[in-house]
Specification:
Elements lengths: L2 H11 L10 E9 L4 E5 L12 H11 L5 E10 L6 H4 L11 H10 L6 E5 L5 E5 H4 L6 H8 L2
Parallel strand pairs: 3-4
Antiparallel strand pairs: 1-2, 1-3, 4-5
């Protein structure tokens, strides 16, 4: 699967977000090394803290089904009201949406930051690709605890 197809999935899944409080929908399409795609959307909660981001939803779905090796994630976002626009119907978003810091850390748990791509989507043909290490420099990962676990 190429990144254009992954971007298209992320844009199309925006309508499944549950955002009664912020009104800002986010969708993510996560590509595994084996070529399978898991999607996630943000799901808000009145208590705010239980809210979960689209990227974490996609990762948790994949991990809960046994996946552990990932290649890339496409992230798309826009105001819920934008979903009724002619631009959205053509696959065009008003801008790029980047993952929050917590989502970047979850990605880091399961991905090599020098090999995992984060794709910020504006349309099927307009997206920016970053390596996770660019978005989360000097990150903390499982290898940082390896020596601690042996004691």
């Amino acid at each position: 699967m190429d990144y254009r197809e992954l971007a298209k999935i992320a844009v199309e899944k925006l309508k499944f977000s549950y955002t009664p409080y912020s009104g800002f929908n986010v969708a993510a399409a996560l590509l595994t090394e084996s070529g399978k795609v898991y999607f996630g959307v943000n799901i808000e909660n009145a208590a705010y803290t239980p809210t979960v981001c689209a990227e974490r939803t996609a990762f948790f779905k994949a991990v809960s089904e046994g996946e552990r090796h990932f290649r890339a994630i496409a992230v798309a976002g826009c105001k819920r009201t934008y979903l009724d626009s002619d631009e959205y119907k053509k696959g065009l978003l008003p801008g790029y949406t980047a993952p929050c810091g917590v989502c970047r850390q979850v990605m880091r748990e399961f991905c090599d930051p020098s090999e995992f791509d984060v794709i910020l989507v504006r349309s099927y043909d307009d997206f920016r690709v970053f390596r996770l290490e660019e978005l989360l420099p000097e990150s903390f990962g499982p290898e940082n605890l390896a020596g601690q676990l042996m004691r």
